[in-house]
Amino acid sequence: MKKIIIANLKMNFTQEDTKNYLDELITLSESITNKLVVCFPYTSLALAKDMLLNTKIIIGAQNVHQNESGAFTGEISAKMLKDLSCKIVLVGHSERRMYFEESYKLINEKIKTLLKYGMRAVLCIGETLKERETSKTKQVLKQQLDQALNGLYENELKNVLIAYEPVWAIGTGKTPTGKQIEECAKYIRNVISQNFSEKAAKNMNILYGGSLKPDNAKTLLSLSEINGALVGGASLNPDSFIKIAKVK
Ligand code: 13P
Fold first, then answer.
1. Segment 17-28 mean pLDDT
2. Domain 4-11+35-245 homologous superfamily, CATH
3. Active-site residue 133, yes or no?
4. Rg (CA), the chain
């Protein structure tokens, strides 16, 4: 089965950096059979649209505003992203929840807007260290899923991917064990099965994110419940991103 490997470039790269990055990534990605997505900062999207035409790298963004247009100074709409050939957008990343106080109610609105415009949403969920240490992981995951997917129709779930990103694993060099990841991914499928159907749960693409690097990619990506990866730091270097993307 093909894996979905997503780069989250976060707040990095000028136009020139983006050009150099893509020059290298396009060449390196020619032999990759997995699906490759890069979530660019907004300011790199127009350049990415030009450079990635006729390549197999899919263009993504890191955020979107929930409203379709209007007086929302400084924001970017789904329609604007679609116009830049953006196919997929991260929503609810823990950095957005932590630093910009995004709630899952808001994230739910963002998902609905993206689906309306025919784009796919990568819903990020995951527990903090305190929540894990107090045995609240499952409770938190359920709450996040219930709120974020509230009111969606089952047939819309094909355009939603879930990234399980424990907050304590992001940028820390720490990762959960394979067993812990499998347990959470299974639980995520359980919740989807209860809220939608067994079929929807089985078909859901669940990605792992958090300190994923070339040296742990094979172990983490071969977990049977995991369909791909959301990569932060290691995606900033085309070489290390491609090493991850090569995993079968
Ligand atoms: P790192 O890979 O740097 O831990 O970041 C993960 C992440 O936040 C991806 O969205």
1. 98
2. Aldolase class I (3.20.20.70)
3. no
4. 17
